[in-house]
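W.,

You were right to be curious about this one. When I first looked at the sequence I had no strong expectations either way, so I just let the prediction run and decided to look at it fresh. Below is the sequence, 85 residues in total, followed by the output.
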Amino acid sequence: MRDFKYVVTDPEGIHARPAGELVKAVKAFSSDIKIAKGGKAMNCKAIFGIMGLAVKKGDEVTLTFEGADEDAAYEAVSKFMQETL
C-alpha cells in the first residue's frame, strides 16, 4: 500500500472537470484507489464521491493505492495531481 499527500493549489479546488479527469485517470488501474480529506475517504473511481469531499484550495488530501498495479497508479495519479490541481 502506498499513499500520497497533496495540498490542492487550484483556486476552485476539486470541481467537476478535474474530478472527472481524475476518475478517467484511475479507471485504467485495477488497484483500489481512495482519496481522503478530514477523515472521510472516497473511491477515486466515483465522481460523486470525489465531489462529496468538497475539496477547496489549500485543503490537504491523501490518496491511497492498494493492489497489483499500485506503483504505476501512484506515479500516474501523483503526476496528475501536481499538474492539474
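Here's what jumped out at me. The first strand starts at residue 2 and ends at 7. And, maybe more interesting for your project: The longest helix spans residues 70-84.

Coffee later to discuss?

I.
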